Amino acid sequence: MKKIILLGYMGCGKSTIANKLSKNIEIPFVDLDKKIEEKVNLSINAIFEKYGEIYFRKLEHEVFVELLNLPEQLIIGLGGGTPCYANNHELLKGDNVVSIYLKASIETLFDRLSHNKNKRPLIANKSDAELKEFIAMHLFERSFYYNQAQYKVNVDDKTIDQTVLDIVAILA
Ligand SMILES: Nc1ncnc2c1ncn2[C@@H]1O[C@H](COP(=O)(O)OP(=O)(O)OP(=O)(O)O)[C@@H](O)[C@H]1O
Ligand SMILES: O=C(O)C1=C[C@@H](O)[C@@H](O)[C@H](O)C1
Ligand SMILES: [Mg+2]
Fold first, then answer.
1. Ligand 2 pocket: which of 10, 82, 118, 131 to mutate (most atoms <8 Å of CB)?
2. pLDDT above 80: residue 73
3. What is the ipTM of this complex?
């Protein structure tokens, strides 16, 4: 059974869209960030603080591979950085997965993230001006990896339901 993988920058809507998609197509959703937190019984913030980002990236790769190796069909929502480390982008191309990049503009991401920074250690301490600059640079650096996905769905100016329907059409 193919795994359905949603990927994209922090705040593009992976968790939100995956939850709704899961109800719509009746395939369970697992959020990689949540699985990581459960595995070590620490929040993402605490993992970054206690052990640093490199440890987090190793753990993230390990848990991603574990999920891909499960026999059942699943929707997997990746973390924002997952495709960009540990050669995880190669895992987006296999026959055993359908990978979908939820593509959001800098403006959309800024609007969503500026209200919602605290649980995201990479941006938690940034001012609005710093945040906008950071998103622009970071998205530029990460786009190469995000573009390894098999499909791309633009999410700007779409409701959650519209984006879900775009994904359902890809899966049909
Ligand atoms: N049309 C929309 N589609 C998706 N999310 C939306 C939309 N409009 C507003 N939002 C909001 O944007 C935020 C998207 O955050 P969400 O946590 O789903 O993103 P994420 O990609 O999982 O981020 P992270 O990588 O940090 O986990 C949520 O607060 C959600 O309610
Ligand atoms: O974009 C990133 O690198 C991250 C995104 C989140 O989903 C978490 O996986 C973590 O905060 C790192
Ligand atoms: Mg999420």
1. 10
2. yes
3. 0.95
Q: Which atom of ligand 1 is nearest to the CA of 102?
A: 21
pLDDT in tens, 95-104: 999 999 999 9
Domain CATH for 119? 3.40.50.300
**What DSSP assignment string belongs to the chain?**
-PEEEEE-STTSSHHHHHHHHHHHHT--EEEHHHHHHHHHTS-HHHHHHHH-HHHHHHHHHHHHHHHHTSSS--EEEPPTTGGGSTTGGGGGSSTTEEEEEEE--HHHHHHHHTT--TT-TTTTT--HHHHHHHHHHHHHHHHHHHTTSSEEEE-TT--HHHHHHHHHHHH-
pLDDT value, residue 101: 98
* Tally of structural domains, the chain: 1
Ligand 3 mean position to 163 CA, how many Å? 16
Range of the domain at 12: 3-171
Residue 142 Cα to ligand 3 midpoint, Å, equals 17
